[in-house]
Amino acid sequence: MAGTPIFNGRYTAGIHGDFAVFLIGMRINRLRAFRKWMPVASAMGPMLSTLYRQPDKGFLGSETFVAWRTILSVQYWRSAEDLERFARNPGDLHLDVWRNFNQAVGASGVVGIFHETYRVCAGNYESVYANMPRFGLAAAAEHMPITAQRESMRQRIALQKEAVA
């Protein structure tokens, strides 16, 4: 994207404590059934906009990817409990979107949806971004240059574990 700053060199992400990674997406199974799958495809945008405006819900950030018939959102959350609270809260958009999907699409097979949730314990992850804009976890959390004490994967994980202890 034009205007997105590139950070030359090597960087890593830092986040304090446990967090959750949530993968959610859809796959268009019948391209011609536009009226069925388009509402599903357009439902994520308003939910993400709401979450970015309300960081107290525990949402940290996301990246969205499109690969032919599949749309994937990789999301970072403060905890799996925050994610579940958002998903089940009648005051948030998700429940209405879920009901609409079940009524309009259900088990028709026109469009598939999926999600995966991963709980990440502090000190059990690492990341490297070289010559990249802020991306992934580094866009959702702290973006730090890799220094001599963070040079290797082993060092980055050890530093996280020290911070937790």
Give the arrangement of secondary structure elements.
Elements: E1 7-14, E2 19-28, H1 34-53, E3 59-67, E4 70-77, H2 80-88, H3 93-104, E5 111-120, E6 129-132, H4 137-140, E7 142-145, H5 153-164
Antiparallel strand pairs: 1-6, 1-7, 2-4, 2-5, 3-4
What does this structure look like?
This protein is of the alpha+beta class and 165 residues long. The chain has two domains: 7-15 and 121-164, no CATH class; 19-119, 2-Layer Sandwich (Alpha-Beta Plaits). Helices cover 35% and strands 32% of the residues. It is built from five helices and seven strands. It has a four-stranded antiparallel beta sheet. A three-stranded antiparallel beta sheet has the order 6-1-7. A hairpin with a 2-residue loop joins β3 and β4.
Which descriptors would you attach to this protein?
single chain; 165 residues; alpha+beta; Alpha-Beta Plaits; 2 domains; four-stranded antiparallel sheet; three-stranded antiparallel sheet; 35% helix; 32% strand
